[in-house]
Design goal:
Strand order of the largest sheet: 1-11-8-7-5-6
Shape: globular
Number of strands: 11
Number of helices: 10
Largest sheet: 6 strands, parallel
CATH architecture of the largest domain: 3-Layer(aba) Sandwich
Bound molecules: guanine
Order of helices and strands: EHEHEHEHHHEHEHEEEEHEH
Structural class: alpha/beta
CATH superfamily of the largest domain: NAD(P)-binding Rossmann-like Domain
Helix content: 25-40%
Length: 288
């Protein structure tokens, strides 16, 4: 079994991005600028956004963090999105999810200019992905495909089973994995799937993206398969200073010995998603 080291791979990709930024600046261009909008004080969102901002610094991007309290109105947030759409200094921006319940997330996503939607969440960008057109692919699916490529894990003709059908991970990943060049045969499973275990046992590549800690157990996997664990649930722990630890969707201890490759949590898919966001921002900057 080989551990897929997302941290190491993401460091390599960040170095490549930093080199490109240096070249852009040497040629008289300006550093790409990513803005992040963070509403409220959700612990997970705070951590993710802090990592995004830090990664921008590491690769030489400009970054801006725009913070609001939980009680911001939908209207105020939509006005901020409109301002960022019009701000010629900003190449791309994200609105960190989840948003408070009184705000319609989809309305906010659809208010983002698709040309600045470096998360790739806007229906225009999702639609372009489905149509096989150039687009901003959302960060987690794109990070997963990068990891498979960098580890030379065969995908052509292989059966990729994805557990989870979210618009952020499962659904776009299913499109990417079946695209020409990746060429996997894809099955998407979800909460209503019957005989889940029979299906997951036929996977050459099994992706768990459901947010249920330890959901994938040893009896659900085919020996020799590659496993990608997208889960990042915070669970209580008396062994860490913070009082919690990140838990994946896979029962790592019992599943890892059976597979050819597996991503750990943390340090697998997580660091790669930030790289994809940086890549999209670089692309947005170049396109403008
Ligand atoms: N919340 C969890 N993952 C993401 C992400 O990739 N982008 C945004 N905007 N919010 C998230």
């Amino acid at each position: 079994m080989e551990l897929i080291d997302g941290k190491k791979t993401s460091t390599e990709i960040k170095q490549e991005i930093a080199e490109e930024v240096k070249k852009i600046i040497a040629n008289g261009g300006r550093a790409p600028h990513l803005a992040a909008v963070l509403v409220g004080h959700d612990g997970g969102s705070e951590t993710y956004v802090a990592h995004k901002i830090k990664s921008c610094e590491e690769v030489g991007f400009k970054s801006s963090l725009i913070r609001f309290e939980d009680d911001i109105t939908e209207d105020e947030l939509l006005k901020t999105v409109a301002k960022l759409n019009d701000d010629s200094d900003v190449d791309g921006f994200i609105v960190q999810l989840p948003l408070p319940k009184h705000i319609d997330e989809q309305k906010v996503i659809e208010a983002i200019d698709p040309k600045k939607d470096v998360d790739g969440f806007h229906p225009v960008n999702l639609g372009r992905l489905v149509a096989g057109l150039d687009t901003f692919v959302s960060a987690t699916p794109s990070g997963i495909v990068d990891l498979l490529k960098r580890y030379n894990i065969p995908t052509a003709g292989k059966h990729c089973v994805i557990i989870g059908r979210s618009n952020i991970v499962g659904r776009p990943l299913s499109i990417l994995m079946s695209q020409k060049g990746v060429d996997a045969t894809v099955t998407v499973c979800h909460s209503r799937t019957e005989n889940l275990k029979e299906i997951t046992k036929t996977a050459d590549i099994l992706v768990a993206a459901i947010g249920k800690p330890g959901f994938v157990t040893a009896d659900m996997v085919k020996p020799g398969c590659a496993i990608i664990d997208v889960g990042t649930t915070r669970v209580k722990s008396d062994k860490t200073k913070s009082g919690w630890k990140l838990c994946g969707d896979v029962d790592f201890e019992n599943v890892a010995p059976l597979c050819s490759y597996i991503t750990p949590v943390p340090g697998g898919v997580g660091p790669m998603t930030i790289c994809s966001l940086l890549k999209n921002t670089l692309k947005a900057g170049k396109q403008r």
